[in-house]
């Protein structure tokens, strides 16, 4: 007898499926508020970041509504059909961790290999970014210019293409929904201080400081979106 091939399931999907089961059994009734992230994480023995990813997936598929600052509520009425959980190819936590590892390297190489013209352009992009204080499309456009330019400054076109790939992953519906709930409008102010520090290290041709500043920057993004506090 041929048995079906089993696929390993992302942790956030396992949590989502478990919570859907609880909702169907009316352990969490329509309109009811779910337990806080911290309590769910403790009961399930997982991190709050995994709980948060699961809740984002449930909101996109219509099972819950996240009211930032007030809690997470089961929708009323419930979805009429079971929409598949979205975009299973990666977890958002893994995406940010990958960027931390990758962009630390590109910042270090940019400090070593960037040309004078590229350094001047980086200063210009950073200046434009610092003028922006709202987390909107204009800020995201300039933010993308900043990170892609640093990848180009490595002198390796494959690394630049890989940065484009990683950046485009943040356009996923789950990442955008996560950001809309947990990255407040003043998000650019904190990020722009990081951008200025990264640029200064690259301009001064200090590879190790450039790496450290970039890693600190990506960690700040992670902390804002997946704070365990």
UniProtKB/TrEMBL annotation:
It comes from the Bacteria. SUPFAM superfamilies: GntR ligand-binding domain-like, Winged helix' DNA-binding domain. InterPro entries: GntR_C (IPR011711), TF_FadR/GntR_C (IPR008920), Tscrpt_reg_HTH_GntR (IPR000524), WH-like_DNA-bd_sf (IPR036388), WH_DNA-bd_sf (IPR036390). The keyword ATP-binding does not apply. Residues 9-77 form the HTH gntR-type domain. GO terms for molecular function: DNA binding; DNA-binding transcription factor activity. Keywords: DNA-binding, Transcription, Transcription regulation. This is GntR family transcriptional regulator. It comes from Erwinia typographi.
């Amino acid at each position: 007898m041929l048995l079906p091939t089993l696929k390993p399931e992302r942790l956030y999907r396992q949590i989502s499926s478990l919570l859907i089961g609880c909702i169907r059994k009316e352990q969490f009734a329509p309109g009811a508020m779910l337990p806080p992230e911290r309590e769910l994480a403790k009961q399930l023995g997982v991190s709050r970041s995994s709980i948060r990813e699961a809740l984002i997936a449930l909101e996109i598929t219509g099972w819950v509504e996240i009211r930032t600052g007030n809690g997470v509520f089961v929708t009323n009425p419930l979805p009429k059909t079971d929409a598949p959980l979205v975009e299973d190819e990666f977890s958002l936590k893994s995406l940010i961790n990958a960027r931390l590892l990758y962009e630390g390297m590109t910042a270090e190489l940019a400090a070593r290999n960037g040309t004078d013209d590229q350094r001047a352009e980086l200063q210009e992009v950073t200046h434009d970014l610092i003028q922006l204080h709202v987390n909107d499309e204009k800020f995201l456009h300039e933010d993308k210019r900043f990170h892609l330019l640093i990848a180009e400054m490595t002198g390796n076109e494959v690394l630049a293409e890989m940065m484009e790939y990683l950046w485009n992953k943040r356009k996923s519906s789950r990442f955008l929904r996560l950001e809309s709930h947990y990255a407040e409008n003043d998000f650019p102010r904190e990020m722009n201080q990081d951008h200025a520090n990264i640029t200064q290290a690259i301009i001064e041709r200090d590879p190790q400081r450039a790496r450290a500043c970039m890693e600190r920057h990506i960690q700040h993004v992670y902390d804002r979106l997946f704070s365990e506090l």
